[in-house]
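Appendix B. Extra example for self-study. Work through it before the problem class; the solution is given directly after the inputs so you can check yourself.
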Amino acid sequence: MPISQLSVKAAAAASPAGLDKVALETAAVTRLLVAEGILDYSGHVSARVPGRDAFVVQNGATSRAEVTPDSMVVVDYEGRTVAGDGQPPSELAIHLQILKARPDVQAVLHCHSELAIAFTMMQGVQLVPMRARASRWKSGIPTHPDPSHIKRNEQGQALAQTLGPHHAVLMRAHGLVLVAESVQALFVDAVHFKENARALMEVLQAGASPLPLTAEEIAQIEKMESRDWHVKKLWNYYLRKCLAEDLLPRDWGAALIPSKEMMRR
Amino acid sequence: MPISQLSVKAAAAASPAGLDKVALETAAVTRLLVAEGILDYSGHVSARVPGRDAFVVQNGATSRAEVTPDSMVVVDYEGRTVAGDGQPPSELAIHLQILKARPDVQAVLHCHSELAIAFTMMQGVQLVPMRARASRWKSGIPTHPDPSHIKRNEQGQALAQTLGPHHAVLMRAHGLVLVAESVQALFVDAVHFKENARALMEVLQAGASPLPLTAEEIAQIEKMESRDWHVKKLWNYYLRKCLAEDLLPRDWGAALIPSKEMMRR
Amino acid sequence: MPISQLSVKAAAAASPAGLDKVALETAAVTRLLVAEGILDYSGHVSARVPGRDAFVVQNGATSRAEVTPDSMVVVDYEGRTVAGDGQPPSELAIHLQILKARPDVQAVLHCHSELAIAFTMMQGVQLVPMRARASRWKSGIPTHPDPSHIKRNEQGQALAQTLGPHHAVLMRAHGLVLVAESVQALFVDAVHFKENARALMEVLQAGASPLPLTAEEIAQIEKMESRDWHVKKLWNYYLRKCLAEDLLPRDWGAALIPSKEMMRR
Amino acid sequence: MPISQLSVKAAAAASPAGLDKVALETAAVTRLLVAEGILDYSGHVSARVPGRDAFVVQNGATSRAEVTPDSMVVVDYEGRTVAGDGQPPSELAIHLQILKARPDVQAVLHCHSELAIAFTMMQGVQLVPMRARASRWKSGIPTHPDPSHIKRNEQGQALAQTLGPHHAVLMRAHGLVLVAESVQALFVDAVHFKENARALMEVLQAGASPLPLTAEEIAQIEKMESRDWHVKKLWNYYLRKCLAEDLLPRDWGAALIPSKEMMRR
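Solution. Structure tokens for the complete assembly:
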């Protein structure tokens, strides 16, 4: 049964408003990531359902550019599909095992970013924070050695272990995982992760010695930074852009755009 | 006589459903390759007609972005046009000789990919599998030395010989040939071939020592891989994208998109 | 109160035509810079209000792609918002302090150009004029060391000091400021700044020794150059392009496009 | 008086059909070059008027994306505007002096191609034929040393002298000139020139020793090549593409697209 019908029926029981909201946001962020060239024919976003021991992830068969809330399936932390139509993507273990291992994380992105992959193919080169916004990844960006499809729980657990307490993990010859405190923050991180990887790539390609952010610079950046405000600003910008370009159904806008009040500082 | 009329008339004799289907699929894959920037003003796709000693290829005069099933000509393995309007492209010998030499191959792409060409212009540099999906080309990617238009059968035979048992052959200063078991698989290979070539190019341009896939990594990738499912997933994604962007006539969709059942695993 | 209502009301007092015009031009140049990929989710343009001790800058909450004259706030040289709805962007200090320090400057752009940032991350590499149009920056392009958000007046003053008498300043790991004699000239400078940075980047990435413009070449270029005509030509081109692509409201055109007479030499 | 009215009036005297045709073709090729990113805010195409001692070039004030036959002015070989509205571009001397010096040339393109400019900024690097289609430039691609606006006849003469008998000349830190036997061939050359420059750039950026076309390879390429057919094929492709994307007025198509008969070999 599609989620939209389910949550109406289940209104009394669980947290349908929460499920509706997270399914819509996850569908929206998937389309935004397609629009930004971060997702294409594969990759997926998962997000915890508030007030429920479960998360949403799109079913494996739906085109990323056409995802709707009804493309979502609800999966519990044993990996069982507990609601929604269709089957979760074959790489479910990525999301399941990371969400289990990291209670602080609310949303997970797995994608096949060209730039991120490149940083797993160069002997002795490490992706590090170059641009101001990349202070987010100051604790490090590890690389997981398994280059294959992550289908099994053991593979997902190994990946979660490589991720450790960090916010990003590269996957050798394959892709990338990002984790964040919300789907909105996850989207904004994905934009900045790409910017930062491109920055280091440009510098390396210029044959120059890169000058990564120093610890002092990171401290100064963080002193002047408001992550929450910044996430709202970018979410507002990209959401409106996609709505204007009809990459999102127009009627999603009202539920997704931060209210005018929220945008005032 | 255009193929669409022909196959109706010839319905009793040969395998018109097969011809209709392969002509439509070949036209569609041509347009998808244009949309992805893999074909542009030249290059072509050929595909065997099931149940008949012949293959389809577009006539040379039609713009790649406007190809329809009626742009196809049917050519037998002597190189004679046996059905359809117009003449085959001047580089027919590429398709003819490869299809003759490789009974396992159902579809052939010839294109002028910038990245592929670059790998024929660099002293001592060999294009190798870097990204997980490029395990497809683990047996090697040879380079054919003839940089000219392949118009003569001897030239086509020499090219087929350089290709040998592999799935790809670079053509010095000129282009690329890919071969696969279906037009859908051919399209997906073309997408991944480009990704892989770009990956190695990026790494070389960064001045780093590339770390190609090892034999162990390829074995692990193949263990977790389902080529058929993957081909269907990407075909579905790109076909829907092109339909949504009106790069394909809307009424082609029904005949081309894998049914919902097929998309369930 | 939005500027459009304000200036009608204040028509007798100050210079409403001037305010209307500069608010419209600043909104237009912001959208043009978005269309050219120079602004995106952040960055802003400021411009002095003629006949008034104040300048306009967009409020911080409006998406750059949707800015209108009513998105502008009027700020005086003490940093107080004296008209318009909403609050100035959090990096107001950039504009305020540069406009205070540089009476010759009428318009200021702050953006996060990828290429400009790259030139603050490479040991021993200096961005210099390569292409003919970059003679504009012959006096030098300094780099400001503070990589953080410029929120405080002291930070803005330090930035203005690094800018000194030049027309551009890079901001370490963060972005760029350009200054010019009008918003139109500022836009044209932004286009050429990007071209020039990309030119040097391409050359460095090719592993070649760059050949920057010599003093003699710059003298020859300036002898044959008409900056005013050139600014009008490019403004006309980009404005019409954005109007044609509906990136600007159609009814802005009449007020913004140089008249046919102006375009005659 | 605009050309469209002029040629009707002058129908008895000169060669109005010729003027109409060349003005339309020159307008069309200008828009095609904009669509391909080869022209943008500046640059221009000139073409001889058949049966008349004069050539057409667009007036300097019209946006390149909006050029029509009526944007053309007719200029004689003394540089006098003899028909059409507006003034020729300020760099008229480029076209005038090259058309005077090279009776074999029918059409001239001046543009500011980023890639071409890059090859005037790298110590000891020479742009040479890499890709098969670049055999066109086997005689060499000289670089003209004057980086400034070419406004004076002496500057144009010096440029024509550097061009000599070749088909292309780079202009230091400024741009490029291509010459050909027709506007259609000029367009196709522009596409291939860019491809070839990008090919060499990619190879250099990969840090590899480039392998340019050898004399033997060029001989083999030319043996198999039909320039006329190739020009028609590409003209057909790009013209239809621009018509389909509404970058050219639809009613230009009939006059510009090679007839079906012409497309048959």
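Self-check: The CA atoms of residues 70 and 258 of chain B lie 23 Å apart. If your reasoning did not lead you there, revisit section 3.
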